Amino acid sequence: MTPVVRMLFGSHLYGTSTQASDHDYKSVFVPGSRDILLQRVMGTLQKTREKARGERNMPSDVDEEAFSLQRYLGLVAAGQTVAMDMLFAPQNMFIGEPQPIWCAITGNRHRLVSRRAGSFVGYCRTQANKYGIKGSRVHAVRNIVEWFDAAISEHGHLAKVGAAADSLPAFITDRGLEHAAIVQIPHPSRHDPIPHLECCNRKAPYFASLKDARAIYARVLGEYGIRALQAERDEGVDWKALSHAVRVGTEAIELLTTGNITFPLPNAAHVLAIKTGRRHYREVSEEIEALLAGVEDAAERSSLPAAPDMAWIEDLIVDAYRGVINGSAA
User: Fold this and answer.
1) Pairwise CA distance, residues 262 & 251, whole Å
2) pLDDT digit string (tens) for 222-279?
3) Are residues 46 and 105 in the same domain?
4) CA–CA separation, 176 vs 156, rounded Å?
5) How far is the C-alpha of 132 from the C-alpha of 288, rounded, in Å?
6) pLDDT tens profile 89-123
7) Please, are residues 83 and 75 in contact by the beta-carbon 8 Å criterion?
8) Do the domain assignments include residue 330?
9) Which residues of 10-34 are buried (b: 16+ CB within 10 A; e: fewer)?
10) Residue-number span of the structural domain to which 152 is assigned
11) Same domain for 102 and 160?
12) Are residues 10 and 104 in the same domain?
């Protein structure tokens, strides 16, 4: 196994580290020839201290995660946040000198960065759904629960969602439910896709019982209620998760707009303030909602290519692996 690059990652990269921060390292490697030929290359290698359930990292902890070259470039091609952050990490984060192949990768970022950075969009949407308390989300899920109550009264709680679904599209339209829709999802063993109700990023298939589907949205409504109280009291909040949501949203807008991500983060002080609980929950929740809208707008307007240059990526991997097999340096 030949190391390609090793870097300090996480809060140290973002500029949000504190005295309590642990050390997180990411690296890329070219596998050995025997593993390549026997097709037993491990895509990801991890090393971390064994911790009890729920135990947080200590400042002295070191987490290591290493990606094979092929796995790493696959993550880049998919627009995954961890791979993108590594791609734009500045030289002062490197531990030792990177191999020439890493310089080739960073020198060809324009071939790698694409609108597939939409995984940033997906992350932001998930976080907005998870932590947002926007009124339209509460309105949507509350109305969906009411629809299920009426459907159960008419059809019984064991009836399938599909048995009552004829009225669902009109209900969603008439109530103006911004975060509810009927979606068709392919099924591996069926020719036709299966319709699902989707509301606030939760899906209920038409073959589910009305009782079980209602329970999904009742839980969501309960979560929103808890968060609304947290917003008033600023208690029981996962500030680190909120800070990541703001960080990723900020990165996504810069990447989709400019094709670049700046480290340390230009808004590192603000992200750190969120991470350490020095902001109000409602304020941060509204910021996440605004960032989601900004990210989705940036994705629509982005001039980045639709997809990365897969031929270039594959040629790079083939050349590197062939070099190892032939006994030359990666």
Assistant:
1) 8
2) 888 887 777 767 777 888 888 999 999 999 999 999 999 999 999 999 999 999 989 9
3) yes
4) 26
5) 7
6) 999 999 999 999 999 999 999 999 998 776 777 78
7) yes
8) no
9) bbbbbbbbeeeebbbbbbbbbbeee
10) 135-233
11) no
12) yes
Stretch 124-150: mean pLDDT: 85
Residues 108 and 166 in one domain: no
Cα separation of 186 and 197, whole Å? Answer: 14
- What is the predicted pLDDT for the residue at 118? 63
d(CA 187, CA 191): 7
Q: Looking at residue 125, what is its pLDDT?
A: 75
CB 197 within 8 A of CB 144: yes
Burial per residue of 186-212, b for 16 or more beta-carbon CB atoms within 10 angstroms, e otherwise: eeeeeeeeebbbbbbebebbbebbbee
Backbone angles phi, psi at 4, to 5 degrees: -105, -50
* 3-class DSSP state of 123: helix
Which amino acid is present at 167?
A: S
**31 lies in the same domain as 81:** yes
pLDDT at position 56 over 70? no
Torsion of CA 148, 154, 159, 164, to 10 degrees: -70
Q: In Å, what is the CA distance from 70 to each residue of 38, 74, 91, 108, 301?
A: 15, 6, 22, 16, 30
C-alpha of 281 from chain center: 21
